[in-house]
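User: For a teaching handout, I'd like to show students what a predicted protein-ligand complex looks like in token form. I'll give you the sequence and the SMILES for LXAUTJHC. Please answer with just the structure.
Assistant: Understood, here is the input followed by the structure.
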Amino acid sequence: MGKLCEAPYSKTVDWAKWYIFWVDERVVAKNHADSNYKLAKDGLLSKVPIVPSHVHSINDTVSAEKAAEDYEFVIRQLVRTRVISVSDISDCPKFDLILLGMGPDGHVASLFPNHSILDENEEWVTFLTDSPKPPPERITFTLPVINSASNVSIVVTGSSKAEAVHSAIDDIGPDFPTLPAKMVQPTKGNLVWFLDKAAASKLDSAKFSE
Ligand SMILES: O=C1O[C@H](COP(=O)(O)O)[C@@H](O)[C@H](O)[C@H]1O
């Protein structure tokens, strides 16, 4: 994403075709240090000519429950008008690309290990008020939405995440709890992990290309 802010991409990418959504968001003001919107705005959106009306951030003035409901409503409208495609095997939106990070505990988006939110398969966007990682109030896409995307990338750096990378990618047998990151399995899409050497250091074998 950083590269896209630089020449030649900043000029050659057809930014008018880009629509931006947040897979998960912390329910804090948009200028708060914990805001995922702020992170994306400072790092990318303020540096490229994305159409402002194509940037769909959450309503930060309401409760987590209402923010999730509002966000799903917006996405449903865009599916109805065919701005977002729809999956042909579920009624879920089919995003072109879902870009995820992963925490040292194996969480992706705001889908945390052993949380009941992992079983949510009715809603497209749901909320939690007890996130084990602060801040506690968050909204998140659900697994069925993530797994309906055309492409999913998980980008992980640092040795603190090496154990979780190993558990999520390697075959570690049935006796271990399944991490949220391992539940990311696009039904008809591609999944690509991007790891630095430290994050890849506990993988069983060289399943990756440098
Ligand atoms: O809270 C979150 O954490 C993960 C990854 O966290 P990191 O600080 O270890 O990079 C992130 O991917 C997720 O979207 C976010 O809300």
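For the handout, you might add this sentence: Strands lie at 20-21, 24-26, 55-56, 85-86, 93-94, 98-100, 125-128, 138-141, 151-156, 190-195.
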